[in-house]
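Q&A log
Question type: sequence-to-structure
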Amino acid sequence: MKALIVHLVDMLRITIQIDRNRSSLPLLLGMSCLLAACSLAPGMKMDGRAAAGTASNTLAPAVPITEIDARVVDRLDEEARQEVLAAKALATASMHYTIGPGDVLQITVWDHPELVAANGASNQSASRPADPAKGFLVDQSGNVQFPYAGTVHVAGLRLEQAGAQLTGALSKYFRNPQVTVGIASYRSRYIHVVGAVRSPGGYPLNDIAMTLPEAISRAGGLDAAADSSRIVVNRDGATYPVNLARMLDDGQDPSRLVLAAGDILRVPGRSDAGVYVIGEVRKPLLALPRQDGRLTLSDALLQAQSIDPDTADASHLYVIRGSPGAAPQVFRLDARSPVSMLLANQFELRPKDVVYVDSGDLVRFSRVLKLMLPGFSAGAAASFVTD
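Response status: OK
Response body:
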């Protein structure tokens, strides 16, 4: 392009030297035609040929453009449903509570009142939330100390199994002891809820299974900025996405998803799932999804106050999608027909998508002239001065 401009300036200088009395309007018109051709060169307009890598710029990657139709919408919707099915792995968590270090046990030996006092090693009620409740503390080794029974290892056992262990140890001193074991304070197992909830923090697990809806409820529920479609559960280094909104829409019961000790439940905000809307729209912006996580192409255009009818080419409306480690995808919608907006209302966008509305040929041509003609006028004036 730079060499072409220099060549045109040289042509203008030669023409002026030949005949200063002739008008330069025909020459300027010819230059304008050349500039119009420049404005239509590959790279100035996003089309199928440029995306396929057949443009003169050989450095551009080959990215095919997919036309948005009903089949494409159905395929992408099915992919989203498969992501929901991946969360079913959370339903395999154990429903039984096992004793762990830090728990406080309540141990009762029936018909032996002399052991009742031992059950409350501290007869004073707890004055602070961090103080242990009355009972027998399971130490960090998983052992509990009980009169006559001595040291008994109970970590990893269910309550009835711990009672059997204590019964066996007390049988050396008592005839047919009847032992009951309960939990006075659950302090060994926690799950953590972070993100866009009203009361983030750690919450202890008890003998009642902690389901995903229960965990959100204990954390005060979702706040106004939450995105319920992109909840994430981190467990043992693995990540499980949970689309709570879609599960409810499909009639699936989210209470079947059971959390385990050490799980981290993260509720992202809607601002993390924004979509960039740029190009020939009235208001370029970062479009945000609704609280259920849905954001269609028509929703994004509505937030951008629609396309600009004076400058936009409605036949070239693009959705550019990419993720780390994956090839980018480009979708195109011809929005000139009102029927096509039905597809836009069904085409769901994903976080960090880019919606780009291309400009019309006449608009690009006028912009090129606006940028380049002042330069040519300066060159022509210089020719007159230096002659």
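Response note: The longest strand covers residues 312-321.
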